[in-house]
């Protein structure tokens, strides 16, 4: 289905998109701050990128449901980039150049790469993200994790890993945070029940908003009546307090254009452009699979939109952005219908910096962890595993390998491992089905008919060559390409070579409807 929506669709869907945008904002805010912190960038940098992703990229993108902003997968690249270029301002220039490169990739139609990721690998990525969200949020849910909110890699900055962090969390529970987390999760589960959805008020108000307001209220009661349960400041949202536009301007950092002669600048820019583009293409492919309306995102347009977003973010002092699967999944789970939900989340992010810092800094992270636990569950429901298993081992094995690889490494490395396994099964399938083989017994000699299939690519060459090599001596072989629309040059060459030498084994070869290939004699 084509990805088209008219202006009237956008306005008609506002009843769904405004609450969804609010939920995405609540999830995005601590992620933007946490990723800034982990990247060694100013705290405001992640918010700037989130605002640009919401207000600019959502409008330029052809995707209706993906949300753009700072990505956990880029934290190491940002950290190393700032260190390599020795100043944050020089790094901002690299972000701007990376954006220019992404726009160029869009015009060169490099977005087609996204279509080559097998469905089993994309579904494995979604399930892995769901599991990681659940595993990573458990310590925050218990008030026991000091790593940044949104950290996704197996090996953590504090030296622990995903599983050892959970074990540690059970020895360092903050009871107040845990109580708030449990109540928040209970509210979210209640909000999903069919009887609640039949009440109009509850359909309009997202459960996540009730959770946020309720968590602040509960923590206020703790502070006043049971201080030992009050959630520690390290487990609250930590938004910079900006009281005027002048203060905001003072916080903005600008790119250092005098670094254009620095060769390292271009290496960092190229790295950002390639990794951010890959992560974006993976994310939009995954979000398209989650979309109930199965709308397809134009990949080249997405690369251009991301490029423009990175140019603007870099000019304003923001870190690089991609389309991000966690926020996009939250958007789908919250009932977002069009790109307006991503735009609205951008408005909320901007307003939060200017007017809402005081209130939002009282929100416990355990409440937001409960929201992400629900998103994680929806991404990795048991029905997804059952569905993949029913499709057979060719789909199930790459799916499981992708999940395990992402869990124990990171998103991009895991995807590449899953892709390698997926390609193996694709090659195996191609190996089996490039032709129809029929054997007939005659008095004088055996007759073998090989009818080539509709499309015979270079992937089929190994199968055809091995089949020709195993043909019995002194047989009559008929190779027929009447059904073929396309036969790869390598395959034609292999058939020609076989025909040229078959007489040495007493094989009589007839070739019909297959273009002859002129092969240079190198001897």
UniProtKB/TrEMBL annotation:
Gene Ontology CC entries for this record: membrane
Keywords annotated in UniProt: Membrane, Transmembrane, Transmembrane helix
InterPro entries given in the database record: SLC26A/SulP_dom, SLC26A/SulP_fam, STAS_dom
Domain of life of the native organism: Bacteria
Residue ranges occupied by any STAS domain in the UniProt entry: 450-523
Transmembrane segments: 20-37, 43-60, 88-108, 115-135, 166-189, 201-222, 265-287, 308-330, 342-375, 396-427
BP-aspect Gene Ontology terms: transmembrane transport
Localization, UniProt: Membrane
Membrane-topology annotation of the record: Multi-pass membrane protein
Main location: membrane
Protein name: Sulfate permease, MFS superfamily
Natural source organism: Pontibacter lucknowensis
């Amino acid at each position: 289905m084509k990805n088209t929506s008219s202006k009237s669709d956008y306005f008609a869907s506002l009843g769904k998109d405004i609450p969804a945008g609010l939920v995405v904002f609540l999830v995005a805010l601590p992620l933007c701050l946490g990723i800034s912190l982990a990247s060694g960038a100013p705290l405001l940098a992640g918010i700037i990128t989130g605002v640009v992703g919401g207000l600019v990229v959502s409008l330029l993108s052809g995707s209706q449901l993906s949300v753009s902003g700072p990505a956990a997968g880029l934290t190491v690249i940002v950290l190393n980039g700032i260190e390599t270029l020795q100043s944050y301002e020089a790094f901002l220039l690299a972000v701007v150049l990376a954006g220019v490169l992404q726009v160029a990739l869009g015009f060169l139609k490099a977005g087609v790469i996204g279509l080559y990721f097998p469905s089993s690998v994309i579904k494995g990525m979604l399930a892995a993200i769901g599991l990681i969200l659940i595993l990573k949020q458990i310590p925050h849910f218990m008030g026991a994790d000091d790593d940044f909110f949104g950290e996704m890699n197996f090996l953590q900055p504090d030296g622990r890993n995903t599983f050892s962090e959970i074990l540690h969390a059970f020895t360092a529970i903050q009871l107040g945070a845990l109580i708030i987390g449990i109540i928040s999760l209970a509210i979210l589960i209640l909000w999903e029940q069919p009887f609640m959805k039949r009440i109009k008020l509850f359909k309009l108000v997202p459960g996540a908003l009730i959770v946020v307001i309720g968590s602040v209220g509960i923590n206020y009661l703790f502070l006043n009546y049971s201080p030992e349960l009050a959630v520690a400041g390290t487990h609250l949202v930590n938004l910079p307090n900006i009281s005027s536009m002048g203060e905001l301007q003072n916080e903005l950092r600008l790119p250092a254009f005098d670094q254009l002669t620095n060769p390292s600048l271009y290496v960092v820019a190229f790295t950002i452009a390639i990794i951010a583009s890959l992560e974006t293409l993976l994310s939009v492919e995954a979000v398209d699979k989650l979309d109930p309306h199965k709308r397809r995102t134009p990949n080249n347009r997405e690369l251009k939109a991301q490029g423009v977003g990175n140019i603007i973010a870099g000019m304003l002092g923001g870190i690089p952005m991609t389309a991000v699967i966690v926020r996009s999944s939250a958007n789908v789970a919250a009932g977002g219908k069009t790109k307006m939900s991503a735009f609205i989340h951008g408005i909320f992010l901007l307003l939060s910096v200017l007017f809402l810092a005081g209130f939002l800094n009282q929100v416990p992270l355990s409440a937001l962890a409960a929201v992400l636990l629900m998103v994680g569950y929806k991404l990795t429901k048991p029905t997804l595993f059952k569905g993949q298993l029913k499709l057979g081992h060719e789909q199930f094995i790459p799916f499981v390998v992708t999940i395990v690889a992402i869990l124990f490494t990171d998103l991009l490395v895991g995807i590449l491992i899953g892709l390698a396994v997926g390609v193996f099964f694709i090659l195996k399938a191609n190996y089996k089905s490039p032709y129809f083989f029929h054997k007939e017994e005659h008095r004088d000699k055996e007759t073998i008919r090989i009818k080539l299939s509709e499309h015979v690519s270079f992937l089929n060459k190994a199968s055809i060559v091995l089949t020709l090599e195993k043909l019995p001596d002194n047989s009559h072989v008929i190779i027929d390409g009447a059904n073929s629309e396309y036969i790869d040059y390598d395959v034609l060459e292999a058939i020609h070579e076989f025909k040229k030498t078959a007489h040495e084994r007493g094989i009589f070869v007839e070739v019909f409807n297959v273009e002859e290939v002129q092969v240079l004699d190198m001897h």
